[in-house]
Design goal:
Shape: globular
Largest sheet: 2 strands, antiparallel
Oligomer: single chain
Strand content: under 5%
Number of strands: 4
Order of helices and strands: EEHHHHHHHHHHHHHHEE
Radius of gyration: 22 Å
């Protein structure tokens, strides 16, 4: 990896929002421009800087909010009994990267499209999965701990997986690993801040999550508007049939294979549903930040909007799973009524004997 991109101080290229610029070797820069198909960046430096800054703000707010949902005691409890977390992490970093690689091969994506899809597939789980796990009546402690563990492990797993899978496209020299590592490190600091707030000042957590959600929505709309004005007709690159098919199939495959894997490991229903939704839901804010900040604008072009396309299908498919689960709950036979006994002059409900 030493020949990929070495950080130097200077005028920022790519997103520029990190305060670091990258001076890639000539052969790496030529390779990166070749895989982009000669895309001419429509972004003015000011607009590019503004979008990069807002993207980083979104990531920061998201990770602080995620940290505010974590409790140290619950994290410790799952670490002491790590079976569910271990299976979940294997599913996250085993199923999704392989799915992204396979779909890129099946749909014969161009090199830069393949890199975009692989980065999305190698990302850790996102906090949207916690919401869907709650809607599916999953194990919320497992969901939150899984998101935490995958975020921390991504610091090592994501660059490693990208390096291995990009070999299949001969693109290992075109991925800015240094920029990706910086973006990953950026996720841990605000997440730690959120955990500290929830541990020491828990009364602030709910307020931070509500305010953070409002800012997140407004910032996302701002990015959409600015990108739409700037990119214009180039958005067809993201809306190509191949990329739309990949964005549709990736989360669906993650949901299904995550459920199958946890079923084979004989976990209970709550854990199965949790691992399924955690596997298919990626940290889209992190993916967007990496694509926008770590790559040159003329290399990534409008493809940094692919995560937005992915989250539309991810959210829609997760909502469909929630609807199907709720329908199943409504139509299944009612649970057996508890039997009531008088114990020490108090009426208590106990489960009826099963045999």
């Amino acid at each position: 990896m030493s020949d990929v991109m070495s950080p130097t101080w200077g005028p920022p290229i790519g997103g520029g929002g990190l305060g670091l610029s990258y001076s890639p070797p000539n052969d790496t820069l030529t390779s990166a421009k070749n895989i982009s198909g000669g895309f001419q960046s429509p972004f003015s430096p000011a607009m590019d800087m503004a979008i990069s800054a807002i993207t980083i703000i979104i990531l920061f707010i998201t990770m602080v909010s995620l940290g505010c949902t974590m409790e140290v005691a619950k994290i410790k409890a799952h670490i002491l009994r790590p079976k569910g977390v271990a299976i979940a992490v294997v599913a996250q970093f085993g199923i999704m990267p392989l799915t992204a690689f396979s779909l890129a091969k099946i749909f014969q994506l161009s090199p830069i499209e393949a890199v975009t899809v692989l980065i999305c597939g190698c990302c850790p789980g996102g906090n949207l999965s916690n919401i869907f796990a709650l809607a599916l009546q999953g194990d919320m402690n497992l969901s939150i701990v899984m998101t935490t563990c995958s975020t921390v492990l991504a610091l090592a797993m994501m660059p490693t997986l990208l390096y291995l899978y990009c070999k299949g496209f001969d693109l290992e020299n075109a991925v800015p690993y240094t920029g990706i590592l910086i973006a990953l490190a950026m996720t841990l600091v605000p997440c730690g801040v959120g955990i500290a707030v929830n541990h020491w000042i828990p009364s602030w957590s709910r307020m931070i999550i509500k305010i953070g959600l409002s800012i997140l929505v407004m910032a996302s709309v701002a990015i959409g508007v600015m990108s739409g004005i700037t990119i214009g007709g180039s958005v067809w690159v993201v809306l190509s049939p191949q990329l739309m098919a990949v964005a549709c199939l990736m989360p669906l495959t993650g949901f299904l294979l995550g459920f199958v894997m946890s079923s084979l490991c004989k976990l209970n229903g709550q854990c199965r549903r949790t691992i399924a939704v955690e596997t298919g839901c990626q940290n889209i804010q992190l993916c967007s930040t990496i694509l926008k900040v770590a790559f040159l604008p003329e290399v990534i072009g409008p493809l940094y909007l692919f995560p937005l396309l992915y989250i539309i299908f991810q959210g829609g498919e997760a909502l469909l799973l929630v609807l199907l689960y709720r329908c199943y709950q409504t139509l299944r036979p009612p649970a057996e009524e508890p039997t009531y006994w008088t114990v020490n002059s108090k009426v208590e409900a106990v489960k009826a004997p099963t045999c």
